[in-house]
Design goal:
Elements (H helix, E strand, L loop, with lengths): L16 H4 L8 H14 L2 H6 L17 E13 L6 E12 L2 E14 L2 E13 L6
Antiparallel strand pairs: 1-2, 2-3, 3-4
Length: 135
């Protein structure tokens, strides 16, 4: 069994994989954020696009040639985004390497719920160079 890429401490097949296979839907904005991070690690563009708000969704992401190696996700805070809410934000840092250099993506992502389904809307992000991911 593989530890989940999102850093939850659970096995992938019990954590994010059910979201990726559509056998389960994220109940919170944080769960969707974690599953989207795991999808980036795995290059699962179809899941990322399917969970992106239709009004903001790009046509494609071009993940196959980006050379990014995702290393670790750190959830900093969540504001709303639980089962009882219709919107929420998740602040996180995602550590990665690209072309042999270390970076961290620091983002505050916005999510909204349409009926019972959470979607990623957009985020305010900055990329910080030179920060290695510590396990």
């Amino acid at each position: 069994m593989t530890d989940c890429y999102c850093g939850s401490g659970q096995n992938y097949n019990e954590c994010c994989e059910p979201y990726h296979t559509a056998s389960k839907m994220a109940q919170t904005a944080e769960a969707l954020m974690r599953s989207r991070y795991s999808a980036f690690v795995l290059g699962n563009e179809s899941y990322l696009l399917a969970t992106w708000d239709e009004a903001k969704r790009p046509l494609s992401l071009g993940l196959s040639g980006d050379g990014i190696i995702w290393q670790r996700l750190n959830i900093i805070r969540c504001n709303k985004g639980r089962e009882i809410h219709k919107q929420g934000t998740v602040e996180f840092k995602a550590y990665y390497q690209q072309d042999g250099h270390d970076f961290v993506l620091h983002e505050i992502s916005r999510f909204k719920k349409n009926q019972v389904v959470w979607f990623y809307v957009d985020g305010a992000a900055r990329i910080i160079p030179g920060l290695a991911a510590k396990k």
